[in-house]
Amino acid sequence: MNTGYRKKNKHYDVIVVGAGHAGCEAALASARLGLKTLILTINLDKIALMPCNPSIGGVGKTQLVLELDAAGGQMAKTADETAIQMRILNRSRGPAVQALRAQIDKKEYEIEMKKILENTNNLVLVQGTVDNIIVENNRAAGVTIESGPAFYSDSIIVTSGTFLQGRIIIGKKDYAAGRMGEYPSMKLTNSLKSLGFEMDRFQTATPPRLDKRTIDFSGLQIQAGEDIPVSFSSWNKEKIFENIPSFLTYTNEETHDFIRKNIEFSPIKSGMVNTHGPRHCPSIDRKVINYENKKRHPVFIEPEGKYSNEAYLQGLTTSMPANIQQLMINTVPGLEKARIVRPGYAVEYDYLLPGQLKHTLESKKVKNLFFAGQIIGTSGYEEAAALGFVAGINASLNILQKPPFILKRNECYIGVLIDDIITKELYEPYRIYTSRSEYRLILRPDNADIRLCKKGYEAGLIKDIQYKKVLEKINNINLCIKFLTLYKINPTVKNNILLKEIGTSAVNSTTSMYSLLKRPEINIMDLVKIFAQAEKFNDKIFKQAEINIKYKGYIERELSEARKLANIDNYYINNEIDYFKINGLTHEAKEKLTKTKPETLGQASRVAGVSPSDISILMIYLKQYEK
Amino acid sequence: MIVKKTAKDTIAALATRAGESAICIIRLSGSASVKIADRIYKAKNGRPVKQMQTFSASYGFIIDKKKETLDQVILTLMKAPKSYTREDIVEINCHGGIFAANKILELCIDNGARLAEPGEFTKRAFLNGRIDLSQAEAVIEIINAKTEESMKIAAKNINGKTGEKIKNLKSSVLDVLVELEASIDFIEEDLEITPYEKIRKKIEDISGEIKTLIEDEKRGEIIKNGLKIVIAGKPNVGKSSLLNALAKKEKAIVTHIPGTTRDAIEEILYIDGIPVILTDTAGIRKSRNIIEKIGVGKSIRHIEESDLVIMVIDCTGTIDKTDLEIYKKIKDKNNILCINKTDLGCIIKKSDINKFASAKNIIKISAKHGKGIGRLEECIKNSVFDGKEFNIEDRIFINNRQKNILKNVLTLLKSANDAMKINMSEEFPVSDLKIANNLLGEITGQIIADEVLDKIFSKFCIGK
Ligand SMILES: Nc1nc2c(ncn2[C@@H]2O[C@H](COP(=O)(O)OP(=O)(O)OP(=O)(O)O)[C@@H](O)[C@H]2O)c(=O)[nH]1
Ligand SMILES: [Mg+2]
Q1: Do A611 and A541 reside in the same domain of the chain?
Q2: Among A338, A340, A383, A346, which Cα is nearest to A361's?
Q3: Which of A306, A353, A444, A529 sits at 20 to 30 Å (Cα–Cα) from A148?
Q4: In the β-sheet with A345-352, what is the strand arrangement from edge to edge?
C-alpha cells in the first residue's frame, strides 16, 4: 500500500550506520536488492574489522555463517577468500554438531570486504559520525552527522557495534573510545534515548597481541588445520587451504600466583568495570579467581595474518595495566621473552535492549528504523553479520512493500538468535550455541542450503541458477534414498565377505542398502564402493541420504516438534491487546507479556515467567477475540 | 439474578464435606469476601471484618435477613496475597451442623458470592501462581480422598514432597545433560568430560528411582481406593465363611447347601490399616439354574476387576476339572490359594495343588474356626507390598498424570542409554534427555529457559 508519504530531500532508500560485520551485510543485502544504499561510518579505513579473535566459525557459529551464505549473505565467501587455516571441529561427532573454524587474515578480510562494498552497485560509502536519527511522523527519515550535514532516506539501519558511549578500560585508566585507537560515538545514544528507546550497558574484552618473533615455539604444541578440501560457502568449490598453524601453551601456578598478587589492578577488585560481560569470554583474572583448583588454563597462540607478525592470545583476555600484562604473559611457557605489541583491554558500551525489536529487527517504536549487531546485545562477528543481513533485507522489503523476511527458530539458528534476543532478558552479550536450538539434529550445517535457499530466493538475493542447483540437490537426495531402498544385497558368501571387510556382520536374508545403513558402524561410502555403485551419485548426495536414513528416528521426532512449534509460531497476536484484561493470567505473565509485546503465541510461550497454563488461557482469549 | 462467571468474582463453598465433621467451614475467596462477610457477620467485640488483621480470628454471630442470629461462629481472615488463593479469604467455622452451614452459605450467595465449582479454590491458587501443578493435583485428591490413609498421602503431596522428589530427579537428569552438552558446544575448551560409562550408570540409577515411584504409585492407588479382593471357588467350599472370618462378623449367609450365595456380597474392612474391599462370589459350576448362571457370570467379571483373588478349595474333596478351570481364570492375577476345612482332616495335600499351581501362596485354613486367618492376612499384605515393610510416612505417591509422564521419561532414558551403548555421539542421547528434562519440569509446572547453558557456565571453566 502506498501511503503517498514523500520525503523532502530524500537521497537514499536505506542508510546503514556503521560498517562492521552487521553493517556490511545489511548494506550489501539492501544494495543487492536494488535499493540506493548509503553506509556512514566513522572511519573508512576500518571496515569489517575483527577487533578480537582472528577467526570465523566454530560450533554453532558455523551454522550461522552457512545459513547466511545459503540465503545470499557475504561472510562465508569473504572468509573463504581470506582464511589462512581451516579446522573441522567435533569431527568424531554426528553431522549436526560438526563445525568449521577458520583462522582469518584480518587485514585481508577488511580489504576484501571493502573492495566488495566499493564495487557493489547502488552502494555509497561516506565517512561520518552519525549523531542523530531524524524521525518524522513516527518513521525513520534520516540522520545527521557530527560535521553538520543531514542525509535523508526511507529506512535506517543502526549497526554501531560497541561505539555508543564506548569507554575503554585498561588497569585503573579509562577513556572514551569505540575500540582501541578509535573515536567513540557519544551522541547517538542520546538521540536514541530521546526517541524513547531503552538502553543499557554491556562490556567485553580482548587479550593482548604479541610480536610473533619474540615467542619461543619450540616446546609448544602445534595446532594445524585440515589438509582436505573444505569451504564455508556452499557456492564455492571446496579447496585445500593455506595452513598456517596455531600453537597451544598453558598458564601455570606462577602465572596464577602473579595474577592473585596483582588482583587489585583487575576490574574484579578495582571496580573499574561493573557491567556484565560475556560468560564465554572471562578474563584470565576471573578464571584464576573462580577456578582456584585449576592448575592451568589453555592459551592458543593464533596468527593474525599472513603478513603480520602479530599473534593473538586466545585465553589470556585481561584489562590489567599494560606493564602487569607484560609480566604476566612472561610466566607462560614459550612466552618468557615475548613482547606485547598491543595490550588487552576491556570496553564498555551502550546497547539497545533488543526486546524493543520485531522479528524483522525493525523497532516497534519507530517505523523503518532497524538495528543489528553488537548494539542489540550480541557478541561475535557471525551473530552480527546474520543480524545485519536480516535487517538489511527487511529494511528493503519494507520499502518495496513486500512481505517481511522472517526466519523462525524451527528453521535456522539465525531464527533462534533473533527470537532469543527479542524474547529473553539478556544478562550478558548473547552468543549462539547449538544447545540454544530445540532442533539441533535438523538444523545442521550440511543442510543449511536446503533450509535457507528458498528463503533467500524469495527475498531476491539468490539467483535462479543457484536456486535450481539446490532444488536439484534435494531431488537427487530423494532419488538416492529411493535407490538405496531398491538396491538389495543377497546373502551370498561373497557379499558377506565384503560386508565383513567394511566392519559389519553378515546378512542372512536379502537386505536393502537402506536397512544396512541403519547399522551405526556402516559408512555409506564404504558400502557403495564395495558394491560398485559409487558413481551413481556424488559423495555429497550419498552422505545426505545416509544422514537421513541413519538418524531417521531422531530427525522425524524433531521435525514433528518443529511442526508443532510452527502452529503456535504462526499464531499472530494483535499489538493492541491488553494483557491486564485477560482473566486467569498470572500477574507475572501479565507484566512480562505487556513488557515484551510478543508478536506470536509461540514467542509469548518463550517469555520467562509465562507458564504453559498462561499460554492456554491466552490462546482461549485470542480465539474469543478473533470472533 | 444472572451471575456471569468470571475468574474475578468472589466464590463460596463448604470447605468440609457434609457429615464428616462436627465443625463446618464456609470459605469465601475473592475481592468481595470481606464486604460479604461484613454484611452477614457481627463480631462480639463489634469490630467489622474490614478492620481485622490478616491471619486473625474473631468470635461472633451470623445474622440473617430477618436480623436473627443464625449461629455462633469463629471467623478468620486471610488477606491477599498471602492467602491460599492469593485472594482475600474469609473462613467461617460454624458449629450448628450441616443445616446451619447450608443456611450460611446461602446467605453468602444472597450477598453476592457465587457457589464455587469443585476444585475452584485450588484452581485459583494455581492460576494465581500460589502453588505448582503437582501441589494443585494433590489438593484435588484431598477433596476426593476416601480413606484416612489416603488423606495422609495427599497431605504429603501438598507439602510439595512429590514436587521435591521430581525436582531431585530432574536435577539429576539435568546434571547428566550438562555433562554431555558441555562437550558439544565447548569442544575447544579444556573441559574434564565424564566418560559414557559413568553417565550410563547415573542414568540407570535415575531410571531405578523412577521405577520405584511408579511401583509405589500402584500401591498408593490401592491405599487410596482400597484393595479389591475377590473370593472365588466351587460352591460350598466355604467362601462365605471366609468372608465372615475376615470381616469378623456374620455378613454372608452360610449354609451347607451348595449354591447359597447367588449374588456377590461386598464388605469393606481394614487389614493392618490397608482398606480392603472384599467380595464373596457365587460358587462357580456348570448350572442350569438361570439365577445361578447369572451369578457365575458375575463372579468371573469380579475376578477380572480385582487386585487379588483368593481361591478356596475344600480339602475334604478332590481336585476336579472345575477347580482347574477356575484356576485358569485366576492364574494371571495376583492370587492366594486357601485349602479350607482343615479341621475335618485333609484329603487334598499341598502337593496335589502344587501340581497345577506354584507353591508360593498356598495357605491352610479353617474358615469356620478362624484358624490360619492371621497367616492369610499376612499373605494378603505381602501380596501387595512384596513382603517389604511398607511405611506410608516415608513414601511418595504420584498421580496418574505424573505416572504417565514418568513412564515416558523412562523410555527416553532408556533410549539415551542405548545410544550411548553403541557409542553414538553426545547430541543423540542429549536429544532424548532434553525431552526427559522438560517432561519432568512439566510435572512440577516449572520450565526454566537456558538452564542447561547456565549450569554449564556455573560448572565448567569456560573461556579460552
Ligand atoms: N468344618 C468346617 N466346615 C466349614 C468350614 N468352612 C465352611 N464350612 C461349612 O461348609 C458349608 C458351606 O459353607 P459356605 O461358607 O456357605 O460355602 P460357600 O463356598 O459360600 O458356598 P456357596 O455360597 O454355596 O457357593 C457350611 O456348612 C459351612 O459351615 C470349615 O473351615 N470347617
Ligand atoms: Mg456362599
Answers
A1: no
A2: A383
A3: A353
A4: A173-176, A167-170, A345-352, A199-206
Interchain proximity A282–B428, CB inside 8 Å: no
Nearest by Cα to A319 from A274, A280, A380, A382: A274
Q: How many domains does chain B have?
A: 3
Q: Is residue B142 part of a domain?
A: no
Give chain B positions within 8 Å (CB) of A435: 181, 184-185, 430, 452-453, 456
Query: B188, B190, B401, B426: which to substitute to probe chain A, counting the most A Cβ within 10 Å?
Result: B188
Query: Of B6, B7, B426, which has the smallest distance from its Cβ to A93's Cβ?
Result: B426
- What is the reported pTM? 0.76
Searching chain A, which residue's CA lies closest to the CA of residue B124?
A584
Residue B430 near residue B152, CB atoms below 8 Å: no
Non-local (6+) Cβ contacts of B293 within 8 A are B287
Let me know if B198 is exposed, middle or buried by CB neighbors in 10 A (0-12, 13-18, 19+).
Answer: exposed
β-bridge pairing B89-94 and B24-29:
antiparallel
Beta strands in A443-522 (DSSP E): 488-489, 511-512
Q: Strand runs (DSSP E) across B358-412, as ranges?
A: 362-364
User: What is the CATH classification number for the domain harbouring B51?
Assistant: 3.30.1360.120
A567 and A505 within one domain: no
Question: Does residue A200 belong to any structural domain of this protein?
Answer: no
Indicate if A525 and A476 belong to the same structural domain. yes
How far apart, in whole angstroms, are the C-alpha atoms of residue A112 and residue A104? 12
Q: In chain A, how many domains are there?
A: 3
Q: What number of CA atoms fall less than 13 Å from residue A354's CA on the CB side?
A: 29
Task: Assess whether the C-beta atom of B241 lies below 6 angstroms from ligand 1.
Answer: yes
Query: Distance between CA atoms of B142 and B136, rounded to whole angstroms?
Result: 10
Q: How far is CA A406 from CA A67, A142, B19, in A?
A: 13, 25, 62
> Are the C-beta atoms of B203 and B417 separated by less than 8 Å?
yes
Task: Tell me, in angstroms, the distance from the centre of ligand 2 to residue B228's CA.
Answer: 18
Query: Within this chain, do residues B238 and B216 fall inside the same structural domain, yes or no?
Result: no
pLDDT tens-place values along chain B, 464 residues long? 333 344 468 999 877 543 344 457 788 999 999 999 999 999 888 899 999 888 777 778 899 888 888 877 778 888 888 777 888 999 887 765 666 777 888 899 889 898 887 667 777 766 666 566 566 566 555 555 444 455 555 555 555 667 788 889 999 999 999 999 988 988 877 778 889 999 999 999 999 999 988 887 777 667 656 688 999 999 999 999 999 999 888 888 888 888 888 888 888 777 776 668 889 988 888 776 777 777 778 888 888 888 899 999 999 988 888 899 899 989 888 899 999 999 998 888 888 888 888 767 899 999 999 999 999 998 888 877 765 555 554 556 676 667 888 999 999 999 999 999 999 999 999 999 999 998 888 776 655 666 666 766 666 665 54
B445 in contact with ligand 1, CB cutoff 6 A? no
B240 lines ligand 1 (CB under 6 A): yes
Beta pairing partners, B363: B338
Ligand 2 centre and the CA of B261: distance in Å? 4
Is there a single domain that holds both residue B238 and residue B354? yes
> Rounded CA gap, A573 and A522, in Å?
48
Handedness of CA A381, A387, A393, A398 (dihedral sign): negative
Domain boundary among A332, A348, A364: A348
Cell of A43: 572511519
Domain that holds residue A620: 557-626
Q: Per the domain annotation, does B105 fall within a domain? A: yes
Domain holding B251, by residue range, is 226-385
3 state SS of B464: coil
CA A49-A55-A61 angle, to 5 degrees, is: 105
Please, which residues have CB within 8 angstroms of residue B353's CB and are 6 or more apart in sequence?
A: B313, B319, B337, B339, B362
